[in-house]
Amino acid sequence: MTTRAKPAKVTNPHPAIAGRTAIVAGNGLLPVAVAESLRQKGGNPLIVAIKGEAEPALYAGEHAEISIVELGGLVKILKAEGISNVVLAGGIRHRPEFRAALRPGNGNLVALYRFLRAFRLGDDGLLRAVISTIESYGFRVLGAHEVVPDILAPAPGTITRKRADPDSVANMRAAREAAVMIGSLDIGQAAIAVGGRVVALEGVEGTDAMLQRVAELRSTKRINRKGGVLVKCAKPQQEVRADLPAIGVSTVENAVAAGLKGIAIESDRTLILGYAETVAAANEAGLFIETFEHEASNGC
Question: Which range is the signal sequence, renumbered to this chain (predicted)?
Fold first, then answer.
């Protein structure tokens, strides 16, 4: 485990967030957005970068680095740096080898054992267990949206120039029902419908890979109709402090490549990474982005 963090003055970047915040950073742009927001508000976040996952840009500031099999050292780092709050941001591509991780030198073995047992669960169960473990040591776990509230999808409506046509509305309905179903099974957070029929469900490979799969289906004429809609929403049992569904410019680009007409996301429970850039990309491509209201009765 390598750490380059140095003691720093604790600042309060937001009235509701007291004390210093650490960002446990996996892959993707979300950890970068959280770090930038905290710094803009006068905070001095500690980046705890997951080796092989975190974006290179995160290493420019004060940081520590741990591998997945060194998660037992996370608690030691947080205590040494006087951390009060923890944000889990970004994805993890690879789950660790359980036995190989349980060896001396990987930090607090009790914490490590609890973390690694969690990796045997589904995604939502994993996040709940990891959060519970971190909180059991006295740290407060925050959602990324609590630090950067403006990345949440806005109130229900259309956020692009183009609006959904009647066919797209039917596709949205079908894909949304499918997304709720797989979400309740802790499988994924997204689905795609074309011609009123669900043609793809998100699995562990993620949204971009699912969109690429749909593009291949079109190229091989397995999907004959044009159009279609991607729907993303939180799982009914979602732990909202981590792994909220997200879209960004790459989502728009892959949706265009898949021949879709638009994207529909859940208001206040989906993240838009790079809001202005994402909307601009959709407008340029003639794609719509709609937001819809969360329905507690069906989970999405």
Answer: none
Burial class (CB in 10 A: 0-12, 13-18, 19+), 297: exposed
Domain membership flag for residue 190? yes
Q: Residue 8 — very low, low, confident or very high, per pLDDT cuts 50/70/90?
A: very low
Residue 299 lies in a domain: no
Domain carrying residue 214:
152-292
Sequence-distant (6+) residues with CB within 8 A of 205 are none
Sign of the alpha-carbon dihedral angle for 254, 87, 276, 229? positive
Instruction: Give the DSSP per-residue string, 235-269.
Output: -TT--TTS---EE-HHHHHHHHHTT--EEEEETTS
- The whole-angstrom separation of Cα 11 and Cα 234 is 32
Vertex 137 angle, CA 135 and 143, to 5°: 25
* Beta-strand relationship, 229-232 and 246-247: unpaired
From 185, 162, 153, select the one nearest 255 (Cα to Cα): 162
CATH number at residue 123: 3.40.50.20
pLDDT value of position 248: 95
Element (H, E) at 231: strand 229-232
Distance, in Å, from the CA atom of 192 to the CA atom of 179, rounded to the nearest integer, reads 9
